[in-house]
Amino acid sequence: MKKNILKYISLASFAIILFIGCGTQESQSDILDQIQRQIDNLKKAHLNSDVDLADRLYHPNLILTSQSGTKYDKEVALKNIENTFESYVNADIEFLQVSNSVVLTNYINERKYKDFDKGRFRLTVLWIKHEGEWKIISMQSSKIKEPKRTSG
Questions:
Q1: β-bridge pairing 58-65 and 133-143
Q2: pLDDT tens digit string along 115-128?
């Protein structure tokens, strides 16, 4: 699994290096605002089971890597949107790399599927500018272990 993680980090790094400085010039704050709107749209897609909105957010070559290390393509990711979410909250959004055509974000996502316990995850998302819109080409989710509670 460590080998796969290193592979994806290398792929993301290569994409960032490849795309830095490409495309039309937009201000960094405009790009950050656009990505924030897309993160909000992803939340809406999950909460409303809106497959059409998610389809517009996902790049055709999406690679989604779950906390178990399983890779999924866009088709499977869109089916996952159909699951009923009771809650979906994003926090601590960090912009690790920003250019006119590639943005790498990292943030905490706390979500609850109907009939399942709430979980906290760290999402690392690679956004690329595709057909004039920011789309997710790669997303990796890691479950955050809750600290053990001591009796006391």
A1: parallel
A2: 888 999 999 999 99
